[in-house]
Design brief:
Layout (H helix, E strand, L loop, with lengths): L1 H18 L23 H14 L9 E4 L8 H18 L6 E5 L3 H12 L11 E6 L1 H11 L5 E6 L2
Parallel strand pairs: 1-2, 2-3, 3-4
């Protein structure tokens, strides 16, 4: 009986130590390589690419990004799509975008999406978009136009060359 009591006491004293787990080494997640920009006008490939770029630029962003995407100029109904997207951009920027948000402008038609962004930022007052991130995916020439139009609003501008 005495031996049994000793074993129970030892088991009770050892149990807290046995229950403690050793700290596990932190798990390292593999970071996927960035997707390359599509070389075709395939809308699905472009949307996947734009999503990948947006995810990689989410630091400091608290909400889902506003993504403004235009298909290629050769797509059916491009003119109408451009007009509707321009109306949406002007409405969104006219209402105001608050800190912690991100705007992404992308298209296989870099010049047209740049034109759309420049037109949209034309109505935005200086310093009214501090803390907002603007990501433009396109050619360097078009990127400079968008940067010149967006930076007076106080945004953090990010250019991603679609190459």
């Amino acid at each position: 009986m005495n031996t049994m009591t000793r074993l129970l006491v030892i088991a009770c004293l050892a149990l807290p130590f046995a229950a403690c787990k050793k700290e596990e080494a932190p798990k390292v997640e593999a970071v996927a390589a960035p997707l390359p920009a599509p070389t075709s006008d395939d809308v699905s490939a472009w949307r996947a690419y734009v999503t990948d770029v947006a995810k990689r630029n989410m630091d400091g962003v608290n909400n889902s990004p506003y993504v403004y995407f235009l298909p290629s100029e050769s797509s059916e109904g491009f003119g109408g799509q451009y007009e509707r997207l321009l109306e949406k951009v002007e409405g969104d920027l006219g209402r105001g975008i608050i800190e912690g948000n991100m705007l992404v402008f992308a298209s296989p038609a870099s010049a047209k999406i740049a034109e759309l962004a420049v037109t949209g930022f034309g109505q935005v007052g200086p310093g009214t978009m501090k803390g907002v991130k603007v990501v433009f995916i396109g050619t360097p020439e078009d990127g400079e136009k968008v940067k010149a139009a967006a930076e007076p609003a106080g945004v953090k501008y990010v250019f991603v060359e679609a190459k």
